[in-house]
Amino acid sequence: NENLYQHTRPEYVGNDMRMLISNMAGRASVQIKGGQLGLDLTDREMAGKITDAIKEREAQGYSFEAADASFELLVRSMTGQLELPFELIGWRVFTEEIVNRSNGDNSEATVKLVAKGQRQSVIGEGNGPVNALGDALIKALSPAYPQVADYELTDYRVRILDEGRGTDATVRVLIDTSDGEQGWTTVGVGTNVIEASWEALSDAYLYGLIKGYAGAAN
Question: Is 145's pLDDT higher than 50?
Answer without folding.
Answer: yes
